[in-house]
Fold this sequence. Notes:
Blueprint: H1 11-51, E1 60-65, E2 75-80, H2 84-94, E3 97-100, E4 107-110, H3 125-131, E5 137-140, E6 148-157, E7 162-165, H4 168-172, E8 178-186, E9 188-191, H5 197-221
Antiparallel strand pairs: 1-2, 3-9, 4-8, 5-6, 6-7, 6-8
Helix pairs in contact: 1-5
Amino acid sequence: MADGVDLLLDTAQLDRDADRLVRRYLSAGTETIADVTKGLERALEAATRDAVPGRLWRAWGSRAYPDHGPARDPAGEVFVNGKLRSRGAIEFWTHPGEVRGKRGQFLAVPLPAAGPRGRARDLSPADWERRHPGVKLRFVARPGRAPLLVADNAVLSGRKQVARANSEKRIAAGRGSTTIPIFVLLPMVKFRNAVAVPTIVAAAQRSIPGEFIRRAGAVTTS
């Protein structure tokens, strides 16, 4: 009859190995959330860049908590950088709705001839008149169409064809003046859901299990 065999287990080593394995799985979860969060930010940037002119796509940012190491409840967030202007612009392009003037007033929307806005958040008719001393905008009603604010005795100048007052020297040289539309007046501006944020977020959420399984598989085989 064979002699009995005594098995000696190093429980301390088993505990250390188990702890190491758990920490690696928890780290895999952290990496998954960090990568999916960054991927969501980039997906929103790409969708915004495709749908919205300019550099608004740069407003998206993200952060993961923690960004590495083991954690039982890792989390990530995607947010809009900047102040009210950036947040308002993102809301404009990601939620359907409409903008109306205060107290029923028209919204004055600058036309290309109005020129650059500069550092001002919005270019209003009063701002434009201050930039062009001596020029007063005139209201022009157009039955069945949006009314205009126009500049009389003006010319278009420069590569961008921006309106400015005609000078006496130019008039003497035979450069005639004209009436140039500067603002179109609208009772409201409708905006649409050009960037489908919920759809993009849902796709990112669906990717989490697969990403974690891929990383967990690497833990098991390593």
